[in-house]
Each structure stands twice: as C-alpha cells, then as structure tokens.
Automatic annotation (TrEMBL):
Keywords carried by this UniProt record: Methyltransferase, Transferase
Molecular function terms from GO: S-adenosylmethionine-dependent methyltransferase activity
Organism of origin: Allokutzneria albata
Highest taxon, organism lineage: Bacteria
Listed name of the protein: Methyltransferase domain-containing protein
PANTHER family xref list: METHYLTRANSFERASE, METHYLTRANSFERASE TYPE 11 DOMAIN-CONTAINING PROTEIN
Keyword Transport in annotation: no
Length: 250
C-alpha cells in the first residue's frame, strides 16, 4: 500500500493540461447530472449551421459531438490547452481561438446560432448575447454555489458560501444581457475520493476549490485527509451543477 508521501507526490506530478479526468478512474468518483450535457450538445449540433464552444479546455467534450455544423469554433485561454484542443477538434473541422476567459470574444456580432460552454470559470453574458444570432441559444453546464464545500471546509476551515455562482444570479445576468432563460436546472452530486493523491490532483486542477492551494502549504491538512480516508475508506463531498439555456429572441 502506498504511503502518504508517495500518494501526495503522485498527485502532485500529474500534468494539468486538458480536461480529461480519466486519471481519477479507481481513485475518485463523481455522479453525473441527469440531463447529460454531452448528449444535449451532440443533439443540438446537428440542428444548427454554426456553433461556438467557450472555454473549451482541451476540446474533449466538444469532440464527442457526432456531427459538426458547417462552422465550428472554440475559445480557450490557457496556452497548454490550445494545442490539445486543436488536435482534438481538427477531425471535426473546428477552429480554436485563444481568448481570455473574461472576454472579449474574437468574433463579429451575430456569428453563431448555438453557443455552448461546460464549467466556464466566468460567463461573459454581454459577449454571449452579442455573438448569438437572433433566435440563437446559449446552452451551458455550470458550477453551482457551494460546490465541493465539504472539501473546501476540510482544508481551509469553515468558509462562507459565495452566491456568485448561484442559479438566481445566472438568471439575473442573462436577462440583464437581453436574453430569455428558457431552461434552468440544478443538481447536487456525490463525489468520493479514495486516496489523498486524488485529492491533491483535484485541488491542483480545480483551482477555485482551495484558492492558492499548494502541497507544501497544505501538507498538514493533507496528512489529516490521508488519515480520514484510511479510517473511513473515502472522503465524501458534493459538487453543485446547473444547466442553463438562454435564448436571444428573434
């Protein structure tokens, strides 16, 4: 059985490029939302002639669509992800553009019939509304307020739950940008970590869970986490997800 130091070192060495979570197989699990985001965008992609994926990561989810529209584009801000996304989306004829998460989007007004985004760090609603064609839709799966709070509190002590990622705020900001919210769903999903190495990799990859996380800065709490998992078999937390669809009226 691996030691605490071995597990931590392993989790600290995993590359962070892309959004492929296959490394966690057998080491951590997370329930998936019932709406099936990848399936939804796959269905929608066959009904439009232009589509944009904002903050595509490595393009892993967008690459699963069964057929691509005539115009397929994606944006990404992190340079290591750009090469991964371009490689993943090339078979679909997709073009990947470097763009900051906070905008602006490098496209003319009314460029896309469908804009999608999975777990964006921030939603730039005015830019989304600007690049949507009249009658077009924005479909996004997002991180909800208080996601993984059990893990945050374990590592940092009790923290206030920000409402920046709440569904109410998402609706307000979409409507303020001139869009009509036609679907809004929220689910709380069980996540389970089976070794401290998985916790380390998760905290390095999902930066907002413990802002400023480093192994050295949190080694004492990681050791307590290791002991908790040894005693209880796992560490359980809950991710919060919501699906929002907002339409630009024709």
């Amino acid at each position: 059985m691996a030691t605490f130091e071995e597990l931590v070192a392993e989790g600290d060495a995993v590359p962070l490029d892309g959004w492929d979570f296959s490394w966690f197989e057998g080491r951590a699990t997370e329930e998936r939302p019932s709406w099936g985001y990848a399936r939804l965008i796959g269905q929608r992609s066959s009904t439009v002639d232009s589509m944009l994926d904002v903050q595509t990561g490595g393009g892993e989810v967008l690459a699963t669509i069964p057929s691509a529209p005539a115009t397929l584009a994606a944006t990404e801000s992190w340079p290591p992800n750009l090469a991964v996304a371009r490689r993943n989306l090339e078979p679909l004829g997709g073009k990947v553009y470097e763009a900051p998460d906070e905008g602006p989007l490098p496209f003319p007004d009314a460029s896309f019939e469908l804009v999608v985004s999975r777990l964006p760090t921030v939603t730039i609603w005015p830019e989304i509304a600007r690049v949507l064609r009249p009658g077009g839709s924005y479909l996004s799966q997002q991180v909800g307020a208080g996601t993984m709070r059990e893990l945050t509190d374990f590592m940092m002590g009790p923290q206030p739950v920000s409402q920046i990622r709440s569904t109410d705020r998402a609706r307000e900001e979409a409507e303020a940008a001139g869009l009509t919210v036609v679907d809004l769903r929220h689910e709380s999903l069980r996540a389970e970590f089976f070794d401290v190495g998985a916790v380390v990799h998760f905290l390095r990859k999902v930066l907002w869970t413990v802002p400023g996380f480093t192994v050295e800065g949190y080694r004492d709490r990681l050791r307590v986490m290791h002991e908790h998992i040894a005693e209880h078999g796992s560490f359980v937390a809950h991710s919060q997800r919501f699906l929002i669809e907002a339409r630009r009226e024709a």
